[in-house]
Amino acid sequence: MIPTIGKVRDHIVLAERWKGLDLRLLPIDEVDVRVLSKLRENARLSNVEIARQLKISEATIRRRIKALEDKGIIQGYSCYLNYQLIENPVKVYVHLAIDPSHRERVVARLCAHSRAVAVYRVTGDHDVLCVMLFVDMTELHAFLDRDLRMDGIRDVRSQIVMSPYKGVPWTGV
Questions:
Q1: Which residues contact 64 (CB under 8 A, 6 or more apart)?
Q2: What angle do CA 62, 68, 69 make, to 5 degrees?
Q3: Integer distance in angstroms from the first to the last C-alpha of the chain?
Q4: pLDDT in tens, 6-34
């Protein structure tokens, strides 16, 4: 089971994130934070339901959500899957050291891989961090042995997630 925030409300978590900042420096205000929190809890809530829960008019909620979408703050709506109920997923963090002259090609190939959840440029001993979600260990082995055998990759280190203490809902583990 994916751990959740539990009784801690998302708006408290979001409000904590920006605590101490002058909200005038952010492109959102306290009402936006409350609306975003409700949508993070359940993106299927209707504007009417959000308005009822926040004790704000439905028209205000509709305008706020539209403005957040227009600004690109809300980029879309998704469905989180609990992959552990469907399959026995293998979540892996793959650290790669890449020759700079090959970075663009290698990163493009990694981003296009069907099992890549996220690909980041990072600091430290490695240049790239890939978050991968495989169906099983056999698929992971094939990725490490076949897909990462390309020019420009100097070093590969992988870490397999055994179990989450606090997971990331959008990756399913």
A1: 31, 32, 35
A2: 90
A3: 8
A4: 334 445 566 677 677 776 777 888 899 88
Is residue 132 within 8 A of residue 115, CB to CB? The reply is yes
Distance between CA 74 and CA 67 in Å, rounded? 9
pLDDT of residue 12: 57
The tokens 């203490």 sit on which residue? 165
Residue type, 139: E
Position 169, amino acid: P
pLDDT at 156 over 50: yes
pTM: 0.70
Kindly list the distances between the CA atom of residue 161 and the CA atoms of 48, 91, 113, 120, 146, in Å, as whole numbers in the listed order: 40, 5, 19, 18, 21
Parallel, antiparallel or unpaired: strands 90-98 and 116-121: unpaired
Distance (Å, rounded) from C-alpha 33 to C-alpha 78?
19
Domains of the chain: 10-70 (1.10.10.10), 83-163 (3.30.70.920)
Q: Do residues 98 and 65 make contact, with C-beta atoms less than 8 angstroms apart?
A: no
**pLDDT score of 1 more than 70:** no
Instruction: Measure the CA–CA gap between 116 and 155, rounded to whole angstroms.
Output: 18
